[in-house]
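Why does residue order matter? Because the sequence determines the fold. Keep that principle in mind as you read this record.
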Amino acid sequence: MQLETLVQQNYDRMSTSDHMIWQYISSHRQECRHMSLHQLADACQVSHTTVLRFIQLLGMEGFGEFKVFLKWEEQRKPVMDTYTIERSSFDLTRTISMIEHADCTQLFDAMEKAQRIYAYGSGSVQKAAARMLKNYLIVGEKLVNVIEGREERQMALCTMQPGDVVLLYSVSGNNPQMIEYATQMKERGMILVAICQDGANHLAKLCDFKLPFYTQKFEIGRYTIPYHSAAGMFIISELLALKYVVYCAAKGRD
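Structure:
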């Protein structure tokens, strides 16, 4: 049985800390095979007892059994089959549920007060998700200014005012360029929104709001290239815009 299966079977019983641990393990399997219990706990930014509880939640007796499980998985060749589709569909379903039930009132209040709203993505796919938000979020007088390149990034930083809202798109949430830019904006009083994968990452820590999407690493193709689906970012863009429309309508701005 695969770890993903154990996680899905116990998903409803998992805490926020459990999600953080799983997100790290699923993205760093190779490193985890060589970590001690305390090293894994430090990497996940939780206590070692929290890691042990997570392992026991999956039905394993202890860390030793968990390491054996990881070693067994290492010996298996990556297989792209219908189970891969099931995993991806499971993540998309969780992302839809998360954004559907998220209380975005405080974020929308901040957007209403902001002089400008910006969106910035750390890569081509991320920028596409940001542009998608701009296309959907044509409500009232507020438009989304999509920051495209390096020069625009610096120009926007000069024109931003404290209280402006910036939505930041990143898959891992650990892109050094994104973190540096977010830090600069944070120091100038911008309100930051992280749209990145669920789990512990630097971007989520920096931001005032977090809208996570769920994704797992796949190894695809002949050379087993690591791949994380970014489809969740587009789901968040669309549903966030629709929720904002509802918010504005409730305030008599439709």
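Residues 82-101 form the longest helix (20 residues).
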